[in-house]
Write a structure and sequence with these properties.
The complex is a heterodimer of chains A (111) and B (114). By secondary structure, chain A is an all-beta fold. Chain A is 0% helix and 59% strand. In chain B, strands 2, 4, 5, 6, 9, 10 and 11 form a seven-stranded mixed β-sheet that branches. A four-stranded antiparallel β-sheet of chain B has the order 1-3-8-7, with no helix packed on it. Classes of the chains: A mainly beta (111), B mainly beta (114).
Chain lengths: 111, 114
């Protein structure tokens, strides 16, 4: 299979650091994307990891470990506006236009 | 311009109505997508156009009919919908580069079928 698993909910406080994990099945794996979606809004692309290691973009970083079949999104210096759903996604083997999506992690940032 | 636009933002229609959703992008992207999203769920792929040709149809009921008039425009024609079709309909586009392709989403059309 090619499914993805991520926690359904995470809660944190402003200024903290939170890590959202995503585990995947290795069959036909190319890389892992992360999308952010605020309530009522559209998914917004955050990052894509094809190789092992950490990719940093401002307060957000994404990590991939192919040997452990997992990745994570790291959000630092959390702000209230980071409250959103975060989805990991991967292209389907043999048809890169199709993405398999995780069920999403709802992040609540509290004061 | 890194924007995908969609109209209308909201749409309420009866089960006997015919309506269309519109999507436009001017990023020169060659792939365009329609997704359906229910609350608290990930987007579900419906259709993909690549170079203006239908590339993927995820066994979507015929009451949904996509159209790609040119490389910048994508329509979704709706006819005889059911209340369970009420959802957020998202359009996306990408350069169609393969596994590392990034999909850019429009703001969506919130559809309610009465």
């Amino acid at each position: 299979g090619q499914s993805l698993e991520q926690p359904s909910e995470v809660t944190a406080v402003e200024g903290a650091i939170v890590q959202i994990n995503c585990t995947y099945q290795t069959s036909g794996f190319y890389g892992l994307s992360w999308y952010q979606q605020h309530d009522g809004g559209a998914p917004t692309f955050l990052s894509y990891n094809a190789l092992d290691g950490l990719e940093e973009t401002g307060r957000f970083s994404s990590f991939l470990s192919r040997s452990d079949s997992y990745g994570y999104l790291l959000l630092q210096e959390l702000q209230m506006k980071d409250s959103a759903s975060y989805f990991c996604a991967r292209p389907i083997a043999g048809n890169n236009r199709k993405l398999i999506w995780g069920l999403g992690t709802s992040l609540a940032v509290n004061p | 311009d890194t924007e995908v636009t969609q109209t209308p933002k909201h749409l309420v229609m009866g089960m006997t109505n015919k309506k269309s959703l519109k999507c436009e992008q001017h990023m020169g992207h060659r792939a365009m997508y329609w997704y359906k999203q229910k609350a608290k769920k990930p987007p579900e792929l419906m259709f993909v156009y690549s170079y203006e040709k239908l590339s993927i149809n995820e066994s979507v009921p015929s009451r949904f009919s996509p159209e790609c008039p040119n490389s910048s425009l994508l329509n979704l024609h709706l006819h005889a919908l059911q209340p369970e079709d009420s959802a957020l309909y998202l359009c996306a586009s990408s350069q169609d580069l393969g596994a590392a392709d990034t999909q850019y989403f429009g703001p969506g059309t919130r559809l309610t079928v009465l």
